[in-house]
Amino acid sequence: MLVTPTAYFAPVSHFALAIQQGCWQWEAHENYQKGGLRNRCHISGPNQVELLSIPLVKGKHQSTPIQEVKISYVTDWVRLHKRSIAAAYGRSPYFDHYSQALFGILEKRPEKLWSLNNELHQEILKVFVISDLFTTTDKYNFRFLETVIDLRKKSKSVPIQLEHYPQVFEDRHGFLSDLSILDLLFCLGPGGGVYLRKYKK
User: DSSP 3-state assignment of 106?
Assistant: First the structure.
């Protein structure tokens, strides 16, 4: 089993590990922690790898339950993220197929980070036909069995090597491993599911 925090467009490695382990649980009972990928993701832009970060309502602190963390819309970050994603993947084979559904979820401006992340990932899991692997924890476990891959702490390394797949700006940057799942989705579309199943034990 794989256990990770919630994430904003989680990295490809989380999906590959979910396939490998046969089960992926998001930690639903932790408290918010700064850093990590709970409200951030990395995409390959025309010039460099870009970090997209969702601003959160001020006053967040370590004791806030993750499902209660609120998103700030004081700045129009939705427009900025859509523009960055379009610049990065507008030329990709499957951008037109899937961008509008994902942008529509962003444009609904959910109040809470957990809800936004969950809805975005459910949409992507459907494309790859792996929704059945995904669930959430029913309580907080401080320690799992040794057979469980626990990536809840940002210091944890990801124990998987990702294979090459064609990327939009590969001619400029070379192959960039473990970007946001958006990269795999827009570059391979449903073929991303085939790619991920290569990691099945």
Answer: helix
d(CA 14, CA 2): 8
Pairing of strands 40-44, 49-53: antiparallel
> The pTM is what?
0.94
CB-facing half-sphere around the CA of 160: CA atoms within 13 A? 24
Helices (H), 90-197: 95-107, 113-128, 170-173, 181-188, 191-197
User: Tell me, what's the pLDDT at 61?
Assistant: 59
Q: How far from each other are the two terminal CA atoms of the chain, in whole angstroms?
A: 12
CA 120/CA 22 separation, integer angstroms: 21
Q: For residue 7, how many C-alpha atoms fall within 13 Å in the half-sphere facing its CB? A: 27
105-163 pLDDT tens trace? 999 999 999 999 999 999 999 999 999 999 999 999 888 888 899 999 877 778 899 99
Q: Is 92 exposed, middle or buried (0-12, 13-18, 19+ CB in 10 A)?
A: buried
Cα-based torsion angle of the residue sequence 51, 52, 57, 61 in order, rounded to the nearest 10 degrees = -40
Distance CA 80, CA 154 (A): 26
Q: What is the DSSP letter of 11?
A: B
Q: Rounded to whole angstroms, how far apart are CA atoms 31 and 51? A: 23
Distance CA 55, CA 74 (A): 9
Instruction: Report the C-alpha gap between 76 and 46 in whole angstroms.
Output: 22
Q: Cα(59)–Cα(8) distance, rounded to whole angstroms?
A: 20
